[in-house]
């Protein structure tokens, strides 16, 4: 039996994770998807009570599991970044080495898109964000902190190995996806010379994928195309920081944070799945948050774990739920209850 770790986390995290459990239970009945589920308490409450963030021994436990499902991390009572870096970062760039951040950007229904005249056939792409390097490595610091002479330094680090494995994953994905067979590299090598590591690696590795069309855009232009011509994108690959930003833009054009999910993946090893949204403390405990992003993360996890049929059925159920007319909006002011969204998805999960 496959084992999954579940970290409900902070704010709305536990609420959306409850909904994932409902869907997993249903798929257990209909598709025989059975997991051993181990819950972990990490997050603000646990940290404030015990001083513990995420002990290294837990990473060892995760290594023996098949996947991790995360709700959300972050709490106003804890200094910004402490929990995020230790828990999310600890999994991504720690020993689990979750070097791919995979973000599907898919418009499920017309009304979710804020762009004029863009329909589901125009917005359907996969972003591969490098997940362990770049400005996220924490090398740097402050000199004369808090004074008028303060100097703040953050080093951007990219390695051939890190870039190559992300690029290679993206080429493989473009091939496997078999849609437009196009891969867009997004960088800023015109201003940041070191980024030619991406450009060169992309060209070199690309020689092994003659069936995949190579495309390139600088990050600023890519943001513009995402809004003007999202249909130009099929699979895109980019660095950690730029990937963080442009995939939120991607979330916005496909319905917002209520729907966007990501997979933090080390191919062939334990990987972590989460909604893109944060802990949204102001909405916590009210039962108004849309759980669809977490259900989408669950769908990605099922797919990763080899439950292809169940994953495809869940994807269809999400599409049908969102196009049924029963969900008018996925914002917290929609008047819908968190569990109400799942009720509709379960109705279509037939
Ligand atoms: C994300 C989040 C994280 C990131 C934060 C919480 C550190 O925004 O998953 O995109 O920047 O990667
Ligand atoms: Mn982000």
Tell me what the structure shows.
By secondary structure, the protein is of the alpha/beta class. It is built from eleven helices and twelve strands. The protein has helices at residues 13-31, 44-50, 56-63, 82-92, 160-177, 196-206, 219-228, 240-253, 292-304, 308-323, 338-348, and strands at residues 2-9, 35-39, 67-72, 100-106, 124-130, 140-143, 151-154, 182-187, 213-218, 235-238, 261-265, 271-275. A ten-stranded mixed sheet has the order 2-1-3-12-11-4-5-10-8-9, with helices on both faces. A two-stranded antiparallel sheet has the order 6-7. Strand 11 and strand 12 form a beta hairpin. Helix 1 packs across helix 9 (292-304), helix 7 (219-228) packs parallel to helix 8 (240-253) and helix 10 (308-323) crosses helix 11 (338-348). It is globular. The two termini are 24 Å apart. The mean pLDDT is 97. 3-isopropylmalic acid binds at residues 84, 88, 244, 276.
Task: Look at the helices and sheets and give the structural class.
Answer: alpha/beta
Q: Describe the main β-sheet briefly.
A: 10 strands, mixed
Beta fraction of the residues? 15-25%
Helix-strand string: EHEHHEHEEEEHEHEHEHEEHHH
- Ligand species: 3-isopropylmalic acid, manganese (II) ion
Give the helix proportion (percent range).
Answer: 25-40%
Radius of gyration over all CA atoms, rounded: 20 Å
Across the major sheet, the strand order is 2-1-3-12-11-4-5-10-8-9
Mean pLDDT: 97
Count of helix runs: 11
Report the principal-axis shape: globular
Number of strands: 12
Low-confidence stretches: none
Instruction: Report the end-to-end length measured between terminal Cα atoms.
Output: 24 Å
């Amino acid at each position: 039996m496959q084992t999954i770790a579940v970290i409900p986390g902070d704010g709305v995290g536990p609420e959306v994770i409850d909904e994932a459990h409902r869907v997993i239970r249903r798929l257990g009945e209909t598709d025989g998807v059975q997991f051993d589920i181990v819950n972990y308490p990490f997050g603000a409450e646990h940290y404030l009570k015990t001083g513990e963030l995420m002990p290294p021994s837990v990473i060892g436990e995760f290594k023996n599991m098949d996947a991790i499902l995360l709700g959300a991390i972050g709490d106003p009572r804890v200094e910004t970044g402490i929990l995020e870096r230790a828990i999310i970062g600890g999994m991504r760039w720690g020993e689990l080495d979750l070097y791919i951040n995979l973000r599907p950007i898919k418009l499920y229904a017309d009304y979710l898109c804020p762009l004029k005249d863009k329909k589901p056939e125009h917005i359907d792409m996969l972003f591969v964000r490098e997940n362990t390097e770049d400005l996220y490595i924490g090398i740097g610091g402050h000199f004369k902190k808090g004074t008028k002479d303060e100097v703040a330094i953050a080093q951007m680090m990219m390695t051939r190995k890190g870039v190559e494995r992300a690029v290679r994953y993206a080429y493989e994905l473009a091939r496997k996806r078999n849609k437009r067979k196009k891969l867009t590299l997004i960088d800023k090598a015109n201003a940041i010379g070191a980024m030619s590591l991406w450009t060169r690696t992309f060209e070199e590795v690309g020689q092994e994928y003659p069936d995949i069309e190579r495309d390139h855009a600088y990050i600023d232009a890519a943001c513009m195309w995402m809004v003007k011509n999202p249909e130009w994108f099929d699979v895109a690959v980019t660095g950690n920081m730029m990937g963080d930003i442009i995939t939120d833009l991607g979330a916005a054009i496909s319905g917002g944070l209520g729907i966007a999910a990501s997979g933090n993946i080390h191919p062939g090893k334990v990987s972590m799945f989460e909604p893109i949204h944060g802990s949204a403390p102001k909405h916590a405990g009210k039962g108004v948050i849309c759980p669809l992003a977490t259900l989408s993360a669950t769908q990605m996890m099922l797919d990763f774990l080899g439950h292809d049929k169940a994953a495809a059925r869940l994807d269809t159920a999400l599409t049908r739920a969102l196009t049924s007319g029963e969900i008018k909006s996925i914002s917290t002011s929609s008047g819908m209850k968190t569990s109400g969204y799942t009720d509709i998805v379960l109705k279509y999960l037939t």
